[in-house]
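Lecture 7 notes: from sequence to structure.
We start with the chain below.
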Amino acid sequence: QLQLVESGGGLVQPGGSLRLSCAASGFTLDASYIGWFRQAPGKEREGVSCISSSGGSTNYADSVKGRFTISRDNAKNTVYLQMNSLNAEDTAIYYCAVARFSWACIGGQMSDRQYDYWGQGTQVTVSS
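Predicted structure tokens for the same chain:
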């Protein structure tokens, strides 16, 4: 069964950091563009960041630029999202998924309609 599994979420104080992991099961990620999305209560799912198959190209939403860093280790079949300087607006369920096309990842605003193999998500809560 092809699936992605997110982990690393939790409760963190404002200004804190977390590193999320997205691991693949049943397939290898090395040829895939991978995106991170998040969905806060009552809001639509939004693209956060994306990375090319080689890791050479990345894309970030304006709201996380300078605070989040996406990376990948193809040998471990895992993509990471390092999140620093977290604030309450970052509270959401975070998901990873595989982009259908490279332009859906690097080309600009990320649309979840162009992604497949969604994981179950990992909860990130930023609160004092």
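Points to note: The chain has one helix and eleven strands. The first helix runs from residue 103 to 106.
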